């Protein structure tokens, strides 16, 4: 699919996600967790291909460790989905409400953002983490790896495939999660300017990635801190 098609599908499905209840979202996350474990062999095979390619290209041992998956790490990814399912649903929560002198009530209520784009580095487990948080909050998510995404693309594709399988089994739209497989810089820049479909971009990674997104994006950006934040 083109990026335009991905954005269009995400925007369309976001309207459905906005109206999902807590039970439906939790079932979706639980089914996604089960599907991840079911797809373990395929995910590990894809990760092995990524690992060997990255190792031959001279990737550092530290980065290789971040890239590598094993049964324990896949179990942790599935457990993470279940932990998010167990969290309270923030959607619909009224934070404050004030009565004005003219009788008008003005308050703050938490609602989904719509379509969240996340550009992230290296670790394949972020694919599951980012999906879980966005889905729990009623948002569609478009995921795009950072400049090193070429080293983990097969892992990310396999993880996304099984997460989407879980959503389908729960009777929910698989396009709640979409992964951009094109690793070119041009596609990343195009995502940063996809205002028509993407409501907010979140860069997750090092200072260079965050700076690039903040400086080049015309989509609103939530700027995170670098490192473990």
How do the SSEs run, as a string of H and E?
A: HHHHHEEEHEHEHEH
- Rg value: 18 Å
Mean pLDDT, all residues: 92
User: Rough shape?
Assistant: globular
Q: Note the total helix count.
A: 9
Helix content: 40-55%
Task: Characterize the biggest β-sheet.
Answer: 4 strands, parallel
Taking the alpha carbons of the first and last residues, their distance comes to 33 Å
Low-confidence stretches: none
Total strands: 6
Order of the strands making up the biggest sheet: 5-4-3-6
> Structural class, from secondary structure content?
alpha/beta
Determine the strand fraction and express it as a percent band. Answer: 5-15%
Can you tell me about this structure?
With 229 residues, this protein is of the alpha/beta class. Helices cover 52% and strands 14% of the residues. It has nine helices and six strands, in the order αααααβββαβαβαβα. Helix 7 links the parallel strand 4 and strand 5. The protein has helices at 3-17, 22-38, 40-56, 61-67, 71-86, 125-136, 153-169, 185-192, 207-216, and strands at 94-99, 105-109, 115-120, 140-145, 177-179, 200-204.
Q: How do the strands and helices of this protein lay out in sequence?
A:
Layout: H1 3-17, H2 22-38, H3 40-56, H4 61-67, H5 71-86, E1 94-99, E2 105-109, E3 115-120, H6 125-136, E4 140-145, H7 153-169, E5 177-179, H8 185-192, E6 200-204, H9 207-216
Parallel strand pairs: 3-4, 3-6, 4-5
Antiparallel strand pairs: 1-2
């Amino acid at each position: 699919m083109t990026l335009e098609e991905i954005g269009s599908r995400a925007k369309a499905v976001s309207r459905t996600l906005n109206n999902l209840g807590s039970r439906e979202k939790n079932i979706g996350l639980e089914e996604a967790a089960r599907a991840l474990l079911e797809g373990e062999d395929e995910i590990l095979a894809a990760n092995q291909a990524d690992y060997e390619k990255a190792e031959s290209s001279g990737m550092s041992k530290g980065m290789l460790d971040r890239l590598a998956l094993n049964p324990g790490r896949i179990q942790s990814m599935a457990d993470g989905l279940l932990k998010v399912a167990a969290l309270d649903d923030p959607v619909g929560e009224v934070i404050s409400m004030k009565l004005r002198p003219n009788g008008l009530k003005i308050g703050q209520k938490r609602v989904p953002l719509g379509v969240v784009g996340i550009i992230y580095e290296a670790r394949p487990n972020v694919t599951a983490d980012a999906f879980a948080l966005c889905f729990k909050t009623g948002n569609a998510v478009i995921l795009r790896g950072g400049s090193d995404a070429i080293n983990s693309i097969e892992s990310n594709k396999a993880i996304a495939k099984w997460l989407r399988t879980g959503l389908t089994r729960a009777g929910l739209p698989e396009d709640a999660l979409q992964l951009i497989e094109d690793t070119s810089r041009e596609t990343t820049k195009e995502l940063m300017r996809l205002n028509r479909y993407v409501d907010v971009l979140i860069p997750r990674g090092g200072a260079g990635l965050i700076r690039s997104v903040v400086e080049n994006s015309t989509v609103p950006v939530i700027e995170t801190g670098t490192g473990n934040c």
